[in-house]
Amino acid sequence: MNEPDDVGEVTRTEIGTLADRLLKACARHKILVATAESCTGGLIIAAMTDIPGSSSMVDRGFVTYSNEAKMEMLGVRAATLEAYGAVSSPTAREMAIGALARSHAGIALAVTGIAGPDGGSAEKPVGLVWFGLALKGKPAITESRTFENNGRDFIRRETCRHALIMGLRALDDHVQADGSPRP
């Protein structure tokens, strides 16, 4: 097996482990999780639903690839998209808030970014992803990452991985920035 496949397998295994940990954290907090995904096209919700028994912690996933889907399914405002674009902090925030409001979840993870190979610009390069997280009873938060442009699959997997880590951090599951357990 060549190195890129090996790296991909490790990443998929790591994503599965993070997804399992997030579902266990949701179970401990007695909440469901929802996702609002653009550039990942459902990879985050797929990672969670790959786990047996996930139906007791996963409520739903919104795949909102187009701006119309973001507006219709999540309530993202047209004015937000016009002013900031789909790949922005305000859009990621509204996606997360919309997913939480339109579900029975207690936590919602949202991602919107440029996975490439096209679509990047000087201001918004390929690899830029905005993450949104909404947790019932707390203000929604956003953060961005610009992943190395190692191809579309790499960017999408790293986006999935980071979203799961954000969820773990929000639920205070004793996780470090890289996703590994705190000592």
UniProtKB/TrEMBL annotation:
- Species: Manganibacter manganicus
Q: Which residues form a coiled coil?
A: none
Which InterPro entries does this UniProt record tie to the protein?
Answer: CinA-like_C (IPR036653), CinA_C (IPR008136)
Q: Domain CinA C-terminal spans what residues? A: 17-166
Organismal lineage = Bacteria, Pseudomonadati, Pseudomonadota, Alphaproteobacteria, Hyphomicrobiales
| Official protein name in the record | Damage-inducible protein CinA
Q: Do you know which Pfam families this protein is assigned to?
A: CinA
